[in-house]
Amino acid sequence: MTDTIQSAIDYMQETRDQMMEDYKALLRFPSISADPAYADDVCACADWIVSQLSALGFENCEAIATDGLPVVYGEWLKAGADKPTVLVYAHYDVQPVDPLPLWHSEPFEAVIRDGKIFARGASDNKAGVWGNLKTFEALLRANGTLPVNIKIMFEGEEESGSPSIEAFVEANKERLRADLLLNCDGDLAPDEPQLTYAGRGIVSAEVRVKGPQADIHSGLYGGLVQNPLHVAGAIIGSFHDERGRVRLPGYYDSLKEADAAEKGRIAAGFQAEALLEGAGATAFWGETIAPAAERATVYPTLDVNGMWGGYQGPGNKTIIPAEAGFKVTMRLAPDQDPRVVSQLLKKHVEGFATETVTVDCSIGEEAWYFELETEGPWLEAVQSAIEETVGRRAQLVRTGGSIPILGVFNRAIGLPITAFAYGHGEGIHSPNEYLEIDTFFTSLAAAARLYHNLGQVTG
Amino acid sequence: MTDTIQSAIDYMQETRDQMMEDYKALLRFPSISADPAYADDVCACADWIVSQLSALGFENCEAIATDGLPVVYGEWLKAGADKPTVLVYAHYDVQPVDPLPLWHSEPFEAVIRDGKIFARGASDNKAGVWGNLKTFEALLRANGTLPVNIKIMFEGEEESGSPSIEAFVEANKERLRADLLLNCDGDLAPDEPQLTYAGRGIVSAEVRVKGPQADIHSGLYGGLVQNPLHVAGAIIGSFHDERGRVRLPGYYDSLKEADAAEKGRIAAGFQAEALLEGAGATAFWGETIAPAAERATVYPTLDVNGMWGGYQGPGNKTIIPAEAGFKVTMRLAPDQDPRVVSQLLKKHVEGFATETVTVDCSIGEEAWYFELETEGPWLEAVQSAIEETVGRRAQLVRTGGSIPILGVFNRAIGLPITAFAYGHGEGIHSPNEYLEIDTFFTSLAAAARLYHNLGQVTG
Questions:
Q1: How many angstroms separate the CA of residue A27 from the nearest CA in chain B?
Q2: What ipTM describes this predicted complex?
């Protein structure tokens, strides 16, 4: 068995330069899911990946239509009924490229420089697509078979909020049935490997507050006409008490305190100094509610992400503006139902309407919290593979961020989930995104070990 | 005497076309005071007006330097020591012309069309400058003398908030000494003449609320770092109670209730339906504080004129923004000292700073309320002139707006003030500003009668 892995790793090293050249073909598709103008490119990218899977010997390969952009599916089920079936998730769509002038090379013409490959999606998350394809190729070349049964699910809408994925998963439960979901959307830095094991849900909303039909003179109308910016300010000001607790009635009703083991994991994975440095801050805020590590990860939040209204230029403009607005996202604790929370928000916010000012709260995203394995053989398979490759195990980290697709799997299919990632990069969602080639090949070696280890897990 | 007036009016009518052609020379100066790029044009305009005054026989004509743009001064003091001296105010600077594409003709190349003259400043307020020059010319041609002593003060900074005028008036009290100030900045519609007799003071401010050094991820930092938009919302939300009363501590301390006569004048001049229509509203707001007419004119207000922070584009951006801001103007009641009120605001707003969020309140304009004559011979001189010309007296109107220069005169010199205006126009501060030529000549006739009437007032 170990010989098989070494053969696969040798193959990876021997074909390294060609693999990176070939990667450029995948990076050439401008598969930007947020902009409808690129829909054809997203579909062409899906078809290209389907053809690659077929060439590897995968079966039932298909770019499956959804209400939005297609999901790439393919399966390799010849490992035997006694071997686990692993559903492998990554996404092939990418972020927009704005601001284009800040890129040093074309975002969709990949360039290799200083051991890095620069392109939009090079790291997030075409590395997850390409890494899996190349790992399967190496294992198949070295051994003629794979150590586990594989089902591929590569999403095409992750960067635009996965609007179609819940319906897709519900409609394809049978096809997606597996023993484990392996999430390959992420980053793995060999010198400091981390695995995210849980995160918060999310609800987003946009609020519009409307008063007079147009901006009107604040001298003539001041004191006479209600100012929608005052109402917007009152709503924003109503969201928190002085300690930073969210004041939406009922908001904390379903909150459960984490158990001691979980509190320990949270504290161990919390990197206070790096976070303070990232914020340019000397202190966190709201300390009386709970320890900082828990506030940042398991406590729910409400943040106004943007607000606007009236005159924003230099100097003065003496108006009562016609309209104000703001955007809200809430990060949800475990067991907070996003559909319940979004209605708490809507009811509270729209309660500020008066006879002369309307308030409309439009709900956007509604996604559950998620959780992956924190112990057991599936996680151990990942940890051993990482340890054998880079000499240390990954730190388990609870994030305050959200991965809607994992919450969907948690609830719709209920299978165990663990995570793995292909290499380390930077510039994700920014200009000059890149992937480090060395760390990508370190991950490929770890992936060969990972799939081998997963093949050893017995139900 | 009546013959003198008629001769002057005849002269105005005989030279009507030439007067409007000559007006184009004044309108050709792009005397935009708000934009430093036009400072030379403002000065050239001042020099041109000085030359016109000199040509009329005015003495000591000068474009007097200030800390900002020059004040045009000139005097004609030959009416005799027994005649009143009238200080005539207007302004020769104009608003910017943006948005230029909406103009149907060049803003500084006046065009006469359909009985209107189109140009930036044609109405606001070069009509006040030109109307006075042409009235004096007509009276001098008809009679060789003027019925009163005249001192001219034409300002060059009115459209940019008169930043230098208070210091100028303080430094030139002797030169500006007079029996009456006649404010010629305004509009006179012959079918519905109005005279503004009082208005509110004003304080403006800009508030900046700063948190993290840059926009940071609301998933990683939500609950951990204080959001400056929340603080901005809390400040805005703190400004008013549910009835619309301003909650700045001490804000109403100097408020005096208007007497019965004044309440009657306010009610008589209040045009509820026109105001409701202008706001596109079916009802006013805050009715429990005081009657709407008084809330709009003698009660102080606080309005947020604009606010901003974070992401304002389509969709979502999950950030805790680095910074928020908003602009405030307060309209001040009689006897509210703007320098006291601005400090109440600053103290209240900056009190929202925390260990992790800074709040800076920068005060802009600070101007007193103003009041003109509401009875007596000076006002009667104006009313008679209007009545003799258009068959009706002007409605006295209290405005909720602010005219900082009049507050300066009220306090620095303390002389009686009344108002008169030259014609009716529209598009003030907007594209396609114009002055109606017929109403301008109606006003010229009324002005000849007005200066005659003022000459009859004895001290």
A1: 25
A2: 0.88
